[in-house]
Amino acid sequence: MDDSRPSTPGRREALKARHRQAIVDATATLMRERQGLGFTVDELAERADVSRRTVFNHFASVDDIVFEVCSEEVGALIGDMEAGLAARAAGEFGPMPVFDQVADVLRSADLVSVISYLTRVLGSAEYDFSPHTLELFTRVIGDFAERLSASLMRHHPSSDVFVVHLMFGALTAGLLVVREHWHAITGGVDTEESRRVWAELLEQLIDRTRGGYGSAFPETQP
């Protein structure tokens, strides 16, 4: 008789996976409810229906859990952007240089929804970042850039890896500056006006990354 029941190690791994996902889901729920990180590990463990020890069996720190939550939130956006890169690489939008493919995907992506969410749940009562949460946000954006770099290389395997990394490094650093100025102007809320401001700042980032900064400053006389 064929016994299709999972082995004991298999059941153990399934239980571990359920516990891990329960911890991530509970963290996401608490972050949305509290509009930030104002909860304790004990509250998290209770919400996930696991022990405090189980939380730290799966994650080295609360920051690692928060990073996974934020990465899941960004994941759908990255999937859409990867599909956009694939379509442009295939010529569905007509002939387009590689940088313009990336720029076009950045323009069409719903970055404001994700950035607004991250600003809200990682920010303070004033919706701004502390040095600690800015580090978390930067980590999330860095992962975002790495995944898009890898996607671009799959579609353009003859591209210079160093140049691709330079391009995404410049765009990623620029997005951090765009978010800072966007927040200062709009308060980090997701409205029609804040989206207009984001689009204008993003366009400046794209233009400067493409053309450089040589003409950005007035010439000085000796």
Descriptive labels:
single chain, 222 residues, mainly alpha, 9 helices, globular
How would you sum up this structure, described in words?
This protein has 222 residues and is mainly alpha-helical. The protein has two domains: 8-58, Arc Repressor Mutant, subunit A; 62-211. It has helices spanning 8-34, 41-48, 52-58, 62-89, 98-108, 111-122, 131-155, 161-186, 192-211. α4 crosses α5 (98-108), α7 (131-155) packs across α8 and α8 (161-186) runs antiparallel to α9. The protein is globular, with a radius of gyration of 21 Å. It starts with 7 loop residues before the first helix and ends in an 11-residue tail after the last helix. GO terms for molecular function: DNA-binding transcription factor activity; transcription cis-regulatory region binding.
Short description:
The chain is built from 9 helices and no strands.
Percent strand equals: under 5%
Backbone shape: globular
The low-confidence parts are 1-5
N-to-C order of helices and strands: HHHHHHHHH
Largest beta sheet, briefly? none
The residue-averaged pLDDT reads 88
Going by helix content, strand content and strand pairing, the class is mainly alpha
Our count of domains comes out at 2
Helix-strand blueprint:
Elements: H1 8-34, H2 41-48, H3 52-58, H4 62-89, H5 98-108, H6 111-122, H7 131-155, H8 161-186, H9 192-211
Helix pairs in contact: 1-2, 1-4, 4-5, 4-7, 5-9, 7-8, 8-9
